[in-house]
Each structure stands twice: as C-alpha cells, then as structure tokens.
Structure prediction request, 219 residues.
Amino acid sequence: MPSNIYRSAKTVWDYHLLHQSLVKSDCLFVLCSNDVRVAEYAAQLFLQGYAPYIVFSGNVGEITQGLFPCSEAEHFANIAREMGVPDNCIYIESQATNTGDNIIKTRELLKDKHLDPQRFILVQKPFMERRTLATFEKLWSTKTALVTSPPIEFDDFANDVISYGDAINVMVGDLQRIRYYPVLGFSTEQVIPQPVWQAYQHLVAVGFDDHLSSDLPRD
Prediction:
C-alpha cells in the first residue's frame, strides 16, 4: 500500500475506533457481517460474563451474498454455539439489511421475547464502531450502550475474506454517512476533525468510493 494511502486510511480507521471500556451489561448485541472474528469475539465476551445473552442481527447483504449457507445472524450464532454459548442464551434476528434495520428489528425481537435490557454492549467491526453507536443513540435513545470490536490493529486486519481495499471502501462510506446522516435523522451528530475529513477526501479522490451512497454528497 502506498504510504500516502496508508496514512489516510490509518487516520480514518483511528477515528472510527472509540476505545470504550467494557462493563457488564444486560445484552450483547452483535451486528453481523462478513467478518466472523466479530462472532468469535462476542462469544468470548459472553463466556467472560459480560452479559447473560446475545442477539445476533443480520440477513444477507451485498458483501455476504453467497458467502455463508444461511443468514449472517444464523452463521454467527452457529460459531457462538461451537464456542460454548448455550443455545438458550442466543437470539437471532435474521431480517435486517443495514445498521438502522439491525437496531429497529432487534428492538422488535426483544419486545416479542418480553425482554427489556437497559444496557447493551454493541459488537461490531473496528472500523464501524462510531457509526454503530451513533445510530443506536439516535434510534434507541431510551437505552444505554457502549460499543466494542475485536482487538485487531489496522496493520493486521486484512485476511482471506476482507482485503484492505474492502476495509478502506467501507471506512470511507461510513465516514460519509457519519457526516450526513444526522440531518436525515439516522444518527447522532459526530465531530469530524479536519485532518480526518481531509483523509476521507484523499481516499475518495484516489478511487476508494465503492461504498459511498449516491444519495449523499461526496465531499
């Protein structure tokens, strides 16, 4: 990776990470994706006693089409079971197709199950921490949440499933949404320092625009 792209990508990566301290909570809420390390991390948190049950939320998205033999949520739940999480401590929401949908449909699922957790641990990929929490705060403001992700450094993130190009495209798209979603009522306002936005603009200019929303401004 050219050094100028690396610097911009690392700047955006660092911005998305919130480094919040974990506390015991009522529910682990896992926003599923193509990254099974998130499922493994969530299962570890459960086994360490951070919450009494886990909700896995996610259908099949553009990135995961054909990747798993079932929905993202079902695949992640299977990983948790294999790691020792009891089946009666797992809830599956397998219809959501975006972050807002994850929250809305999980809220409906928990209501149907007569569960009313007050404090959540949101579990997500590192570069999606900030937008996940901002979306939760807007759409479920009566609850308390913190967000966490597998402790993976940017230099170690890419694997056989997710390339650095994939990660950078999503990071850039999420930053666009962080900037413009609050006015649409989709998330809470976030301060974006000028160097972070300049890094975003640089990455867009060199072609990392696959995850940008055509409905939002690019700059």
Q: What stands out?
A: The chain has two domains: 3-14+154-205, 20-148. The chain has seven helices and five strands. The longest strand covers residues 27-31.
